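Lab notes, practical 5.
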Amino acid sequence: MKYEVVGNTVPAVEVTLNAGESMYTQRGGMAWQTEGIKMTTNAKGGVMKSLGRMFAGESIFMSTYTAEKDEAKVAFATTVPGAVMPINLAELPEGFIIQKGAFLAAQPSVELNVKFTKRFTAGLFGGEGFILQHAKGNGMIFLEVDGDAIVRDLQPGEVLKVDTGNVVGFEPKVSYQIETVKGLGNIFLGGEGLFLTKLVGPGRVVIQTQNFGDFAGRIIGMMPGRR
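Output from the prediction step:
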């Protein structure tokens, strides 16, 4: 399998497959393909995993694209302006934790499971939802990032506080919890919400420069007829 990230504003990853090789994505994730690609759709992993994906913000059904001849191509595009981040999970034995909506596509050797946060408040208020996803395996996974992707390798005990919704993913050894913004003036006048995501190293963290949910909310607030 070979891949190339193409495009700038709303990029896509174009994957070149040999006969028998496959990629899977959530329903509707495919942007284009050449001849020689066969699509199958099913509840990948069974009913329970499918329901877990639904709570994690993904589609219940997954679509698998399999090459029937060498050099067949299939592309998966982001849904908003941003970036595509490739991650080789073979280099991460413990896998990678990703937020809802970050999954774009992966090889069949990548297993995607739901993961409950350790603290209930992290899921209830953290902006990523109570259920995250744990990607693990020996293949490639491609993540969808809103805006630009920023990678930080945290040292032991190093702390990074991130606005809710701006976390793309992190290694499982990174501690993840929610911290309340201090000060009534900051809460009511700061415009940043009540909570920050607190990430504590060691481990790799990926954050995004844009939270598209907040951006969409601002656009809706400017539409005629809304007050």
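Observations recorded by the TA: The CA atoms of residues 110 and 143 lie 13 Å apart. The two ends are 51 Å apart (CA to CA).
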